Amino acid sequence: MAGNTETSPITGGMAIVEALIAMGVDRIYGLPGAQLYSLFDALAQRSDRIRTYGARHEQTCGYMAFGAARSTGRPGVFTVVPGPGVLNAGAALATALGSCAPVLCITGQVPSAFIGRGRGHLHELPDQLATLRSITKWAARIERPADVPDVMVEAWRQMTSGRPGPVAVEMAWDQMAGSGEVEMPRATAVPASTRPDPREIAAAVALIERARRPMILTGSGAQGAATAVRELAEMLDAPVGAFRGGRGIVAEDHPLGVSSYAAFKLWPQTDVLIGIGSRLEMPYMRWASMMHLIDKPEPPPHLIRIDIDGGEMDRLKPHAGIVADAEVATRALIDALGRSKRQRTPGAVAEIDEAKRAARADIQKIQPQLAYLDVIREVLPRDAFLVPELSQAGFTSYFGYDVREPRTYVSEGYQGTLGFGFPTSLGVKAANPDRVVVSMSGDGGFMFGAQELATAAQEGLGVVAIVFNNRAFGNVLRDQKTSFGNRTIGSVLANPDFMMLVKAFGVEGHRVASPGALRPVLAKAITAGKPVLIEVEIAGGTEVSPWEFIHMKS
Ligand SMILES: Cc1ncc(C[n+]2csc(CCOP(=O)(O)OP(=O)(O)O)c2C)c(N)n1
Ligand SMILES: [Mg+2]
């Protein structure tokens, strides 16, 4: 942290804000309440250094920080009141934990004398720290103003080092409001990258040398290693695929970048799989079984895993594991393979091209979703962010939308958090004001956060929200029709008129009913520089199920 050595008394809230400034934070997403008044007053006084974005529900504060973090790889910070505020943001924290996104939650507590006394103080939870610890990587209490710098530095270290993830700090009401002498530390230590063990590299190289058709699958842990991953892929003529968080690391219009379904087509002939920063949900759950646990896969293919979290090697046991940063380990593999005698496999790239073509042809039947996705891909710049929510179009985007730049496909990961999309896209836009941000939701998911149209309008966040309106929790409705004898329940939705809804918020709205009609409206909306909602009318029951390309059995 930079220089502030001032020791005149300041409030706990002011100390937290000074610590954030020292750590380079320039945006925070927050919703105030009594326990946080001194923190928000400090934010008001330091608004020259930190911009505070308000929201209309705490879940949005959490999702905005998540969107900022997932789209940039840098920490996103939010602040909400304790108790219900924290619980309202809980799904966002769990989503960040599942996605390894660096998110810092700052919250309050009941007054220190009341903690653990069960007297029913405002916003009291039985054990807030325990609750936070179960949905974050790390959480701690700041006991008094003087402790703010140390705890904040440790929070930052926990959030950004090793496997990144969300962290939380809480501070009792009286302590956050009270004053004390606070000495800001001078510098935050940057954690050094873990060096790979040469024996681990050698074991991986031995497997790769024997392999004729290696495949690389990436997760969000490889998002910072795009150049190295591409070099490794080009060296091995290996296809590079991903399910959600690892997409865009190698562009899917690069000859070696493959969709999840093209990767599935190439899977039977794969003799070595190199998983980088990924839990490998696709091959060992989606392509195998969601019900049967695979602890250590049987070769072929042999499994090589690169992960900074050594615990991953126990959760899914590889035949060669490299515990290190994705970039550092991938470079070490490239260096070692450069010295090896491995021969290229003739025709490997042509086979990949063939699989990509065949995959593309097979998925054509997923209409009308694919036709809409094709228009979206055609209109959006390469580096535009797409925030796809669970919906018929969102699911289809898993395999039917080319991702072309790292971090541009902002997904919710394995939490499958309906309702994250539009609120998350607001944080993506706040953190990337000069880039195009499009959220894509169903009518059901969008309504989880429709009130944030007010936030978009008030904060001037020019997100384009595409809402596919089939007047249903369509996915559930279809499952009930096909698997439960047509007994539909809780899945048919009577919606507001979305055009009247956006008008009430002062947001521009358009309604379209065909991919052709979407094209010019979307092209204009992404240049509008203000929030725009585009409702896509979908006649109920017309969407083809995308599931055969998501749960695939080999
Ligand atoms: C927080 C949460 N609640 C419930 C679900 C279950 N769920 C998955 S998809 C879905 C329906 C989505 O409806 P909509 O957003 O309208 O998209 P559609 O399938 O109709 O295109 C539901 C309820 C979930 N994934 N997450
Ligand atoms: Mg719907």
Ligands in the structure?
thiamine diphosphate, magnesium ion
Morphology: globular
Query: Helix proportion of residues, in percent?
Result: 25-40%
Q: Walk across the major sheet and give the strand order.
A: 3-2-4-5-7-6
Distance linking N and C termini? 52 Å
Number of strands: 18
Average pLDDT taken over every residue:
96
Sheet bearing the most strands, described? Answer: 6 strands, parallel
In terms of structural class, how would the helical and strand content be classed?
Answer: alpha/beta
Beta-strand percentage range: 5-15%
Rg on CA atoms, Å: 24 Å
DSSP summary: helix tally: 23
Please mark out the parts with pLDDT under 50 across 5 or more consecutive residues, or reply none.
Answer: none
What would your notes on this structure say?
The protein is built from 23 helices and 18 strands. The chain is globular. α1 (12-22) packs across α2 (37-45). The strands form four sheets. The protein has a six-stranded parallel beta sheet with strand order 3-2-4-5-7-6, with helices on both faces. The model has no long low-confidence stretch (mean pLDDT 96). Helix content is 39%, strand content 15%. The chain is of the alpha/beta class. The termini are far apart. The structure holds thiamine diphosphate (TPP) and magnesium ion (MG). Magnesium ion binds at residues 442-444, 470, 472-474.
List keywords for this structure.
single chain; 554 residues; alpha/beta; 6-stranded parallel beta sheet; 5-stranded parallel beta sheet; 23 helices; 39% helix; binds thiamine diphosphate; binds magnesium ion
